[in-house]
Design a protein that fits this description.
This protein is an alpha+beta fold. The chain has a single domain, classed as SUI1-like domain (Translation Initiation Factor Eif1). It has two helices and five strands. A five-stranded mixed sheet has the order 3-4-2-1-5, covered by helices on one side. It is elongated. The model has no long low-confidence stretch (mean pLDDT 81). Keywords: Initiation factor, Protein biosynthesis, Translation regulation.
């Protein structure tokens, strides 16, 4: 038998208020990704072809910062490598095995990059 829900805490912490002096900032979730300087971040350049019909891709993992900065970094890498790709789930996916080129670009931008896998 399923556990019976007893109060608002059991529903995930909903807060309802009719108080005009209510300060919702104390209850709102802040961005969990802490913004770090490029030199303080440790990125990983992975090589993968699993689940992509044998096509090879380079995956950049470990970026910590706002989603819009991740997207702009992905655009910059795609443009400089002259290939396609995408940004999702906190990762940058670049078509092809361009790890060395990507690592040089990211190191020039000030990031610490480590080559991972084959």
């Amino acid at each position: 038998m399923a556990k019976k829900k007893l109060g608002l805490e059991d529903l995930g912490g909903f807060v309802f208020s009719t108080n005009d002096d209510f300060d919702e900032s104390q209850y709102s979730e802040s961005d969990s990704r802490e913004e770090l300087e490029p030199k303080d971040q440790q990125l990983e350049a992975h090589f993968s072809n699993k689940g992509r019909g044998g096509k090879t891709v380079t995956i950049i993992k470990g970026f910590q910062g706002p989603e819009d900065e991740l997207v702009s970094m992905g655009k910059m890498l795609k443009k400089k490598c002259g290939v396609g790709g995408s940004t999702k789930d906190g990762e940058i996916i670049i078509q092809g095995d361009d790890r060395e080129k990507i690592m040089k670009i990211l190191k020039k931008e000030g990031y610490n990059v480590k080559r991972v896998g084959g």
